[in-house]
């Protein structure tokens, strides 16, 4: 009888260790989802025109991040930004798309923030 109880305690202990390990792994898992990072200097004429569009879109989409290249120069270099404005789509922590230069709403942040544009519903802006 004591052998059965010891085996049950052993199985329970192994289960608890596995459960803690899975919880630990899930906590360290990179975030999933899609986001768009825009790099633009506020002084360039094409960037000023795009800034209005980006500000309008960022009100409705929290996954749209606007960065000033003058303040985030090192970060822009890390992303390989060579032209302004630049739109970088990040899906599940991986850069999926880079668009350089001025974009329309459809070509800029719109498709950049939607990883599956073919799956759009009619009420979605992108």
- Average pLDDT reading: 74
Low-confidence stretches: 115-126
The CATH topology label of the largest domain is Glutaredoxin
CATH class wording of the largest domain: Alpha Beta
Tell me the Rg in angstroms.
23 Å
Spell out the helices and strands N to C. HEHEHEEH
Tell me the CATH superfamily of the largest domain: Glutaredoxin
CA-CA gap between termini: 65 Å
Adjacency order of strands in the biggest sheet: 2-1-3-4
* Major sheet description: 4 strands, mixed
Number of DSSP strand runs: 4
- Structural classification: alpha+beta
Shape: rod-shaped
The helix tally amounts to 4
The CATH architecture term of the largest domain is: 3-Layer(aba) Sandwich
| Portion in strands | 15-25%
What does this structure look like?
The chain has helices at residues 2-27, 45-60, 73-78, 106-113; strands at 34-40, 64-68, 86-91, 94-100. A four-stranded mixed beta sheet has the order 2-1-3-4, with helices on one face. The longest helix is centred in the first third of the chain and has 26 residues, at 2-27. The protein has two domains: 1-30; 34-119, Glutaredoxin. Strand 1, helix 2 (45-60) and strand 2 form a beta-alpha-beta unit. It has 126 residues and is α+β, with helices and mostly antiparallel strands. 44% of the residues lie in helices and 20% in strands. 19% of the residues are buried. The chain has four helices and four strands; from the N terminus they run αβαβαββα.
Which short descriptors sum up this protein?
about 130 residues, alpha+beta, Glutaredoxin, 2 domains, four-stranded mixed beta sheet, 4 helices, 4 strands, disordered C terminus
């Amino acid at each position: 009888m004591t052998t059965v109880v010891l085996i049950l305690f052993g199985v329970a202990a192994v289960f608890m260790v596995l459960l803690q390990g899975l919880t630990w792994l899930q906590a360290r898992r990179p975030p999933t989802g899609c986001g768009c990072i825009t790099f633009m200097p506020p002084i360039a004429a094409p960037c000023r025109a795009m800034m209005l569009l980006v500000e309008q879109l960022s009100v409705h989409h929290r996954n749209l991040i606007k960065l000033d290249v003058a303040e985030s120069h090192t970060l822009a270099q890390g992303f390989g930004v060579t032209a302004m404005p630049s739109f970088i789509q990040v899906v599940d922590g991986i850069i999926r798309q880079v668009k350089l230069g001025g974009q329309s709403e459809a070509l800029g942040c719109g498709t950049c923030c939607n990883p599956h544009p073919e799956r759009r519903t009619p009420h979605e802006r992108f």
